[in-house]
Specification:
Layout (H helix, E strand, L loop, with lengths): L1 H21 L2 E6 L14 H13 L7 E4 L3 H14 L3 E3 L5 H9 L5 E5 L4 H9 L13 E6 L5 E6 L11
Parallel strand pairs: 1-4, 2-3, 2-4
Antiparallel strand pairs: 1-5, 5-6
Helix pairs in contact: 2-3
Length: 169
């Protein structure tokens, strides 16, 4: 009888551990400041500095993968982190968030996703089930940290980086 209880306890513990191993962290951030409002602008000077500050933030955080949309501003933001981690920047289609969700759920280590003001809150909501407020066109400093699992959670962090550039890029 005690052996049955012990086996049941170990079975429950192994299920709990399996859940914890499959649940992990996804970081989402909007691309850094862009040079202009053209269709596919590169990062501004301030944006390049913010991207480097983001790479510094992730210096001691292990990442399994880095994802970005195929636009210059997202790829350049992601590249600063990816280069430091010696990882490629993987493309994803911002119009196909469910495909990205399937890719992210395969990872068991933290992942960084760089998106846009209109897609990052949408992705956070899709992944966590928690509604997020939209980002303004001027908002570049929020970093979303999602803990995925049975009870997902979202932590919003404001990046410490402040652009010293005089213009409003």
């Amino acid at each position: 009888m005690k052996l049955n209880k012990l086996l049941a306890w170990f079975g429950a513990l192994s299920c709990l551990l399996a859940l914890q191993l499959s649940a992990d962290t996804v970081y989402l951030v909007r691309h850094a400041e862009k040079q202009d409002d053209s269709k596919d602008p590169p990062l501004s000077e301030c944006g390049r500095a913010r991207a480097q500050a983001l790479a510094d933030y992730f210096a001691n955080i292990p990442l399994a993968a880095v994802y970005a949309t195929p636009y210059q501003r997202t790829r350049q933001t992601a590249a600063a982190v990816a280069e430091h981690k010696q990882l490629p920047v993987n493309n994803y289609d911002p119009r196909q968030p469910e495909q990205l969700q399937q890719l992210l759920l395969k990872h068991t280590q933290p992942v960084l996703v760089v998106g846009h003001s209109n897609t990052v809150p949408q992705l956070v909501s899709l992944l966590s089930g928690i509604d997020m407020a939209a980002l303004t066109e001027q908002e570049y400093s929020l970093l979303y940290q999602l803990q995925l699992g049975e009870q997902s959670s979202v932590t919003l962090k404001r990046q410490a980086f402040i652009c010293q550039q005089a213009s409003g890029s």
